[in-house]
Design brief:
The complex is a heterodimer of chains A (132) and B (398). Chain A has 132 residues and is α+β, with helices and mostly antiparallel strands. Chain A is 51% helix and 21% strand. Chain A is built from six helices and five strands; from the N terminus they run H-H-E-E-E-E-H-H-E-H-H. A five-stranded mixed sheet of chain A has the order 3-2-1-4-5. The longest helix of chain A has 18 residues. Chain A is globular, with a radius of gyration of 14 Å. Chain A starts with a helix and ends with a helix. Chain B is mainly beta. Chain B contains five helices and 22 strands. In chain B, the strands form two sheets. In chain B, strands 1, 2, 3, 4, 5, 6, 7, 8, 9, 10, 11 and 12 form a twelve-stranded antiparallel sheet that branches. Chain B is globular and about 55 Å long. Chain B starts with a helix and ends in an 11-residue tail after the last strand. The N terminus and C terminus of chain B are likely disordered. The chains are: A alpha+beta (132), B mainly beta (398). Chains A and B meet through helix 5 and helix 6 of A and helix 5 of B.
């Protein structure tokens, strides 16, 4: 039974608080104001960065959502394992992203830093594979 | 053991003047302890930097399949949050296609010990059997293997190689002394099995191949250092067939780097001949040139490297030409990479990444050593470790 998306995001946040506290504070500072509706297969979760914290919720006002990301578990792991690139997934319509370009670039920079941290964290790797 | 003794006996009978006999500390039976994981104490101050692994390499000349298998443990081995096991299967087929899969193994699902070379993880295992052979069995993704590798020669440690070179030269050569220093900085333990027959089966994306070769090789190394602290090395073995008279018994090369340029690399090449004589060329007598750019089959692990650096391609030359001369002996080896697996490793201190380029090459060997004339093209494993980044950061001077 794969881990639910919202549980994954909450565990990811807890892990970053424990192992990468300073980096997490910097990420929050850079991501302030982003409300992302993340869809993984049929599951949905909202990542909301307000003030000094990140909240994972199940819903948000439509007006507040400024980024939407939709992909399947299959596509996510194909990207993580290097079987396809982000742009290949995007142009194959397996990854759908919408939002203001500036906000999307901020999101991309944040995920890039999280993924970069994951390379030295077995905890993050194993947590990600619980999603599968 | 018998084979090595026979080589030594024949060399004594030959009374070779240009070569020297190989010295050895170990017996085949010592493999179980010498090749075991050297897990540091729980009180060790550098536990977070611990890393240790088995490498197994072979090339099946009939099936034309190259294999590089790595089984390691990384990070604090007592902390499941900060340590893990790692398994990598890399193959290149006759068409030059590359197949690579890696997997991290949680420490609670991994068995390694200081008493034997076993590495038993989830769905993949290396087991050292009582009959002095390795069994490697497992599956990662679409790649599966089931091999048996009997140990037919005793293990060789870094000390053996250093003494061998000393024995051949009669004096401590500058190149090898510096290389030994660089090796000692990195590795707490380093050991190799210079020849392993390999038999079994491999499955690549659903197609199975029977493997039967005499040209396997194994090494095992471990240390406690951050990836960002090394400038890397170029090492490898030419996978000679012991039954082909025209080929040397073995050829190994080791160059360790202590700065950003090839000018700061030290080491040499050791050629073992069929009569047991050995010849060492120090880097002072070697010229290395690189030409062109590699464009053949290539894999990269971990996969997120493609996500982080979509345009990344390792800076590998089309050819590496090694010319050695130590009158009256001469040797020229032209390495042509055929397939590559790049393993990108991150420093925990934020230093630039390091890249292990595990290359399957053809090595065209020409030379005259101690009256033996060589003119053969032989498969080769070449491991080139360098900082990842732009050419200016690169150790290669192209």
């Amino acid at each position: 039974m794969p881990l639910k998306l919202s549980h994954f995001l909450k565990n990811l946040l807890a892990l970053m608080k424990e192992d990468y506290h300073q980096q997490l504070q910097e990420l929050i500072k850079d991501a302030r104001g982003i409300t992302c509706l993340q869809t993984l297969d049929t599951e949905k979760a909202v990542i909301q960065v307000t003030g000094r914290r990140i909240r994972i919720t199940s819903r948000a006002r439509k007006k507040q959502i400024n980024v939407r990301v939709t992909l399947s578990r299959d596509c996510l792991f194909k990207i993580l394992e290097g079987k396809i690139t982000l742009s290949e997934a995007f142009f194959a319509n397996e990854l759908k992203v919408s939002g203001e370009p500036v906000t999307l670039l901020r999101c991309y920079a944040i995920w890039e830093r999280v993924i970069s941290l994951a390379r030295t964290s077995p905890r993050l790797y194993f947590l990600a594979y619980k999603l599968r | 053991m018998l084979h090595r003794k026979m080589c030594q006996k024949s060399a004594v009978e030959a009374g070779g003047s240009s070569g020297a006999l190989s010295l050895g500390f170990y017996r085949i039976e010592d493999t179980t302890l010498v090749d075991a994981f050297n897990i540091p104490s729980i009180f060790d101050a550098r536990l977070a930097l611990y890393k240790e692994w088995h490498d197994f390499v072979f090339f099946d000349r009939r099936k034309r399949i190259f294999s590089f298998l790595n089984f390691g443990i990384y990070g604090n081995p007592y902390d499941s949050k900060r340590g893990c096991g790692f398994a990598l299967l890399f193959f290149a087929d006759r068409r030059g296609r590359t197949f690579a899969e890696m997997k991290l193994i949680a420490l609670d699902k991994l068995q390694v010990s200081s008493y034997n070379p076993d590495f038993i993880g989830e769905g993949i295992e290396v087991v050292y059997l009582k009959d002095n052979s390795f069994k490697i069995k497992g599956q990662i993704g679409n790649l599966a293997c089931n091999f048996k590798l009997p140990v037919i020669l005793p293990p060789v440690s870094g000390k053996d190689i250093f003494l061998d070179v000393l024995n051949m030269h009669g004096t401590i050569s500058y190149g090898m002394a510096r290389a030994a220093l660089e090796m000692a900085k990195l590795w707490d333990n380093w050991v190799e099995l210079p020849r392993l027959p390999v038999s079994g089966e491999v499955t690549l994306d659903g197609t199975s191949f029977t493997i039967d070769t005499r040209t396997g090789y194994h090494d095992h190394e471990g240390g406690r250092f951050d990836w960002g602290s090394t400038w890397g090395w170029d090492t490898g073995v030419i996978l000679c067939d012991p039954l082909i008279e025209e080929e040397p018994e073995n050829v190994e090369f080791r160059f360790y780097r202590w700065g950003p340029s090839d000018r700061f690399s030290h080491g040499g090449v050791i050629i073992g001949m069929k009569n047991g004589e050995r010849k060492y060329f120090d880097n002072e007598n070697i010229q290395i040139t690189r030409t062109g750019r590699f464009t053949n089959g290539w894999s990269v692990v971990p996969g997120i490297t493609r996500l982080l650096y979509p345009d990344y391609h390792p800076d590998i030359p089309e050819r590496v030409i090694l010319s050695a001369s130590d009158e009256p002996d001469k040797l020229k080896i032209v390495f042509t990479p055929k397939a590559v697996c790049s393993i990108v490793v991150a420093s925990i201190y934020g230093e630039p990444d390091r890249v292990f380029n595990e290359m399957f090459c053809s090595a065209s060997l020409n030379g005259n050593i101690g009256g033996h004339v060589y003119d053969r093209t032989i498969p080769c494993w070449f491991e080139s470790v360098r900082p990842r980044g732009s050419v200016s950061q690169y150790a290669v001077e192209t």
